[in-house]
Design goal:
Length: about 350
Amino acid sequence: MTKLQVGLLFGGRSGEHEVSIRSAQAIARALTASENQDKYEVTPIYIQKNGVWQGGETSQIVLRTGEVFGSSEKAESSQLWNFPPEVSKIDLWFPILHGPNGEDGTIQGLLTLMQKPYVGSGVLGSCVGMDKLAMKSAFAQAGLPQVKYMGVTRDQVYSSPCVFPKLCDDIENNIGYPCFIKPANLGSSVGISKAQNRGELEKALDEAASYDRRLIVEAGVKAREVECAVLGNENPKASVIGEITFNSDFYDYETKYTDGKANLYIPANISDDIASQIQEMAIKAFLAVDGAGLGRLDFFYIEETGEILINEINTLPGFTALSMYPQLWEATGIPFSELVDQLIQLALKRHS
């Protein structure tokens, strides 16, 4: 039996480079597990922080040790199109690149041009799922309830001293406090701030604008944070519901990826009726952005009123030991190695 050559693409140019390495390590272990080792041959391809692709022994060392390789300084343009020779033998790609240039449609476009199947959403689903403003519009069009929000541009933040105060006035009048200020196109809570007053709002807008030219301001709500994993293409299925609790002010990058900073409860202690509503909304949101393969949907559950608000979708969620997505499927009855196998089969089906 000929093994499928799986290109495990990891690293990347985003701030989630290290998380991507850890996700790739877990996926590599699953692909070489006894139940998968006769099906797949793993070829790791590592993208340095400066965008240079590495194969061979270099990618193997990074995958084995978890240590970042290479310089983050700008690479020569000729290096960026120098793909390792192993790329030519890849049958299917498993990109596990989190954040910009990994789950925003850019790498998906490149893999589409290579005319090879790949795990996860396509160009449209990836870019809509990454851009929080486009995502919110898709959710609104699908009739999914959300918190109040408004879009802001970098030009508005860096505008004249006469315009910027008016922007802050609009946010205070339309959104109020507390509110969250986020770059529209970054993942894992990078660049996100919570504002309780005018001074914090001004500082948060300035910080978010340093990351992205499109920003989103969302109203804060007192709610439980619950998540649902989705698996499939045109007819996806939803996992059991999980809940995240934490002691920090909000679920920031450090809380998300530091062991012991957050607690995951799977399944969440909610009624069957609420769980069913969240699962239905998760599938609806997944289809609204044209998701494929996998997605993790995050919700706010306001227990006092029974209201459920969709927060966001992550079309390429983490696969680290702390990640919610594989844990949710484990609790639903699909172990890690089988989950990885199913994702590959879904990619092959979608490509065919």
